[in-house]
UniProtKB/TrEMBL annotation:
GO biological process, one term: brassinosteroid mediated signaling pathway
Reactions accelerated catalytically: L-threonyl-[protein] + ATP = O-phospho-L-threonyl-[protein] + ADP + H(+); L-seryl-[protein] + ATP = O-phospho-L-seryl-[protein] + ADP + H(+)
Membrane topology of this protein: Lipid-anchor
SUPFAM superfamilies associated with the record: Protein kinase-like (PK-like), TPR-like
Protein keywords: ATP-binding, Brassinosteroid signaling pathway, Cell membrane, Kinase, Lipoprotein, Membrane, Myristate, Nucleotide-binding, Serine/threonine-protein kinase, Transferase
Chain ranges of the Protein kinase domain: 72-327
Protein species of origin: Centaurea solstitialis
Name of the protein in its database record: non-specific serine/threonine protein kinase
Amino acid sequence: MGCCISCFSKKPISEKDNVNSKIKTHHHRHSPSNGKGAAAFAGDNGGGGGVPVFSEYSLADLKAATGCFSSEFIVSESGEKAPNVVYKGRLQNRRWIAVKKFSKMAWPDPKQFADEAWGVGKLRHNRVANLIGYCCDGDERLLVAEYMPNDTLAKHLFHWENQTIEWAMRLRVALCIAEALDYCSTEGRPLYHDLNAYRVLFDENGDPRLSCFGLMKNSRDGKSYSTNLAYTPPEYLRNGRVTPESVSFSFGTVLLDLLSGKHIPPSHALEMIRGKNINLLMDSHLEGNFSTEEATVVFDLASRCLQYEPRERPNTKDLVSTLAPLQNKPDVPSYQMLGIPKHEEAPATPPHPLSPMGDACSRMDLTAIHQILVMTHYKDDEGTNELSFQEWTQQMRDMLEARKRGDLAFRDKDFRTAIDCYSQFIDVGTMISPTVYARRSLCHLMCDQPDAALRDAMQAQCVYPDWSTAFYMQAVALAKLDMHKDAVDMLNEAAALEDKKRAK
């Protein structure tokens, strides 16, 4: 933030300056990032930080999160022999989740299901959509995982609407999934059931993740593959068993998908591979925008993965070591390459009932905040300024005229004009209005100026130390600056102030 708040205060720092100094320290230490994709992507191979510990959920929790398992919340449905459904849900703490619901008899023994779930739940990696819980209640068997909001690889490859996946992103997907498989293998979970383009998901930043659901079978004794048998490893057709080498075969089918942009049965693709006809295999939607040398490496790796004899296929470490040198845009965020908006994370809901202002701020809904500030007008400013008759000068009238012009511009959503007019009002300094600071803070947010928005919200707090709106506006600005922990703290502080005011 260019300078500390004391540099531009017209009044002394309030009693709550311990909160401000905490924000100031954090803000100087954390510059706004451009998401997990950029430079962070290149070295981002560690554990899944920020993921909840694995735990057991009640059926009531999951019913509430999914609207009683409403069909409107279904995000995928598959498998005739071992039917299962995946729902999108939202917990009370506002965390989005994916809930996989098994058929009643898929896992008759609750202990066996729980043991399997706990085994997968120990894994934590940011290349995996991690398993965060399970539920065994009566006949119900459910898994709870992190929710990935940006669809599957299948959607982006086969059913895209705006743009196909560019070549560099396809290479990134291949490497990320190889890294996920290698991590799982290293942690003692080498078997992945039915790896395909529907099991590859994109998180809020557009980074590829491997669904944790494939680390568990669809049932205790059920089939491990629910997709067309034309894509299954030959040894599975012989004996019905999945081995680590079977996973390499399935990874080869995903490589074919990435090369061709189509779901080609391996037998057909092998004919092209044997004929070395790479151009015939390549996705025409790439329009030639790929490196033939890189495509040849992927082409050859797919060929090795699809070998009939399992012992001739590469292991997961081979997959990673082959694909890692091909990464050619490590500093470009994934969301940018996918052509999706940058993720803006809303602060989590505080443990207090939210007012309309609190709810709007927790959702980062700037339009709703604007409507509330327009409706509230200046009622919260009462008592913050008492002017004598002698102060009622022409300068004072000019200043109030500037505020009036700012209010009109604010109402009409002309936010840049509002900033100019409110600045004229503030710069005179005769009258200090927390509402003007809050309104100008929102104007700065609307103009994508979160630093300036945070300064104004902090100044509003200095003028009116117990004003919840000042804290709410700081929460939104901090979230825009990717300082999410501080944003949650501010949201909680604001809600607590509202509770305190209601209790009086």
